[in-house]
Amino acid sequence: MLDAIRDFFSGSMQPDSDTEPAVEHSDLRLAACALLLEMAWADDEFSEEERDHLQAGVRRHWGLADAEAAELLEMAERERAQAHDLYQFTRLIRQNYSLGQKMVLAEIMWGLVFADGELSSREDYLIRKVSGLLDLQIAYLSEARNRARGGGTAPDGPFVVD
Predict the structure, then answer these.
(1) Where are the domains of the chain?
(2) What is the crossing angle of helices 25-40 and 66-82, to 10°?
(3) Per-residue pLDDT tens for 17-32?
(4) DSSP code of 160?
(5) Would you state the pLDDT for residue 151?
């Protein structure tokens, strides 16, 4: 199954002409998922509500089936566990995502934070740190937070590089 997912990503997801030649969509998806997983674990608990929110977001934004989304999250968890810091993930996203894509990603991060009904100081700190590493201004971060809380309309479309 893992080989099938890797084949799917390497065969059907070609790099965007605006991205570096070595950066593929699968790399960006892994980076985004690793950041989302880091956010989910920020309070040292990955609740069922957070898990459901993350899986639904991955399926919806990348058009993946349940099994494909689960495989992508498993691969991202392995990458996250091996990473020394978040920079390797944020660098890829900062360089290859548009402002709109970064905002959708931030909105999903806020959704993860709010999914269990509690906002820990560690979660708040981490989302602000990641947003800074992504060059996402505070005003945009606040807008993403409001959207995640239901105070605005979510942007249409995926946060992948098309």
Answers:
(1) 2-9+24-148
(2) 70
(3) 444 444 566 789 999 9
(4) S
(5) 59
SS3 159: coil
| pLDDT value at residue 25 | 67
Which residues are CB-contacts of 30 (< 8 A; sequence separation ≥ 6)? 72, 75, 76, 79
Question: Token digits for 45?
Answer: 């608990």
The identity of residue 121, as a single letter, is S
Return all residues near 119 (Cβ < 8 A) that are at least 6 apart: 113
Q: Is 57 in contact with 36 (CB distance < 8 Å)?
A: yes
Fill in the amino acid letter for 34: A
Q: Which two tokens stand for residue 39?
A: 């956010």
Q: Describe the chain by its helix, strand, coil percentages, rounded to 5.
A: 70, 0, 30
Specify whether the CB–CB gap between 159 and 105 falls below 8 A.
yes
- Which is the CATH superfamily of the domain at 2-9+24-148? TerB-like (1.10.3680.10)
Q: What is the pLDDT of residues 79-96, one digit of tens each?
A: 999 998 999 999 999 999
Enter the pTM of the model.
0.74
Q: How far is CA 108 from CA 5, 22, 104, 105, 145, in A?
A: 23, 26, 6, 5, 9
